[in-house]
Design brief:
13 strands; Peroxisomal Thiolase, Chain A, domain 1; 336 residues; EC 2.3.1.180; lipid metabolism; four-stranded mixed β-sheet; transferase; alpha/beta; five-stranded mixed β-sheet; Beta-ketoacyl-[acyl-carrier-protein] synthase III; ACP_syn_III_C
Length: 336
């Protein structure tokens, strides 16, 4: 007999106050608003100041999610999962610090590193803890300060990526109730690990001694990633939709990783979903990697696009390479 289902009962988001517009970015690197919008659909992205770390964003979003969940699940959680590519430090994980700063005591806390698919992997981990009976409530956070790992001279990277955080609270419940996470499909292909990478700083290529060459910045093969993102998110989405029991009905809303407007449209077209039903907020926040999905869910709720009872498909693609999808019938909650 399977264990309890993981039910979404709280949602919170946070972005740094400063939004860097395309016009402002054009004064810093060789680009333009027209160039950025035509290739990505992005108009601005939020950038954390020098005093703000990933844990700060995670605490803000996590605290809001806990507030949102209080009416449905009571105070506190039993575990914290932080999905991030930009932890405060290489060691230790960021999640224990976030749990402590949120006043959650000595709960289990760990990080998940799956780049832009990180939040989906984190949801699956949280759902597994609940199904196993290890936790009754789990706080899952996607948080990034991606601006810290971008090459200042890389006009493409600086145009695409921004900082932010989003979080959900999961509680143990029944599979048939609103908010219950449905089927997951997760995958990876390590033969493409060099397509999205920060090459320096790990055991393969440690930081060199003074005077030696190093590349500490994020690098991406945009064309190959574009093709992979469309193919993998489409295939993964088809697999979970085939297992949802929605009797062949299309989802009411697709919330995909906010990487590029052309990718979002291509995935919607391949799934036979109207482009208007594929939610877009990357024009306002850019690509926020592991924070992308929860930030999009929060904005969709505030925009009145995501409402209780909607059948929602979540999907993402990221470094690793990693990808995934899952389904949820949205509950009656207010994003904080």
């Amino acid at each position: 007999m399977s264990g309890p289902a993981a039910v979404v009962c709280g949602l919170g988001t946070w972005v740094p106050p400063y939004a860097l517009t395309n016009e402002e970015l054009s004064a810093l690197v060789d680009t333009s608003d027209a160039w950025i919008r035509s290739r990505t659909g992005i108009g601005r992205r939020h950038i954390a100041d020098a005093a703000t770390a990933t844990s700060d964003l995670a605490v803000e979003a996590g605290g809001r999610a806990l507030k949102s969940a209080r009416a449905h699940a009571g105070p506190g959680v039993d575990a914290v999962v932080v999905a991030t590519t930009t932890p405060d430090r290489p060691c230790p994980a960021t999640a224990p610090l976030v749990a402590a700063r949120l006043g959650l005591g000595t709960v289990a806390a760990f990080d998940v590193a799956a780049v832009c698919t990180g939040f989906l992997y984190g949801l699956a981990a949280g759902a597994g803890l609940i199904a196993a009976g290890t936790a009754g409530r789990v706080l899952v956070i996607g948080a990034e300060t991606f601006s810290r790992i971008l090459d200042p001279a890389d006009r493409a990277g600086r145009a695409i990526f921004g900082d932010g955080a989003g979080a959900v609270v999961l509680r143990a419940g029944e599979a048939a109730e609103p908010g219950a996470l449905g089927s997951f499909d997760l995958g990876s292909d390590g033969t493409g690990s060099d397509l999205i990478a920060v090459r320096t700083g790990g055991s393969r290529q440690p930081y060199p001694a003074a005077g030696q060459a190093a590349d500490p910045y994020f690098r991406m093969n945009g064309k190959a990633v574009f093709r992979g993102a469309v193919e993998r998110m489409t295939a993964s989405s088809r697999r979970v939709l085939a297992r949802t029991g929605w009797a062949g009905q299309r989802p009411d809303l697709v919330v995909a990783h906010q990487a590029n407007l052309r990718i979002l449209h291509a995935v919607a077209d391949r799934l036979g979903v109207a482009r208007a039903d594929c939610y877009v907020n990357l024009d306002r926040v850019g690509n926020t990697a592991a924070a992308s999905l929860p930030l999009a869910l929060g904005d969709a709720g505030r925009d009145g696009v995501l409402n209780a009872g909607h059948r929602v498909l979540l999907t993402a693609f990221g470094g690793g390479l990693t990808w995934g999808a899952c389904t949820v019938t949205w509950p009656d909650i207010e994003p904080a």
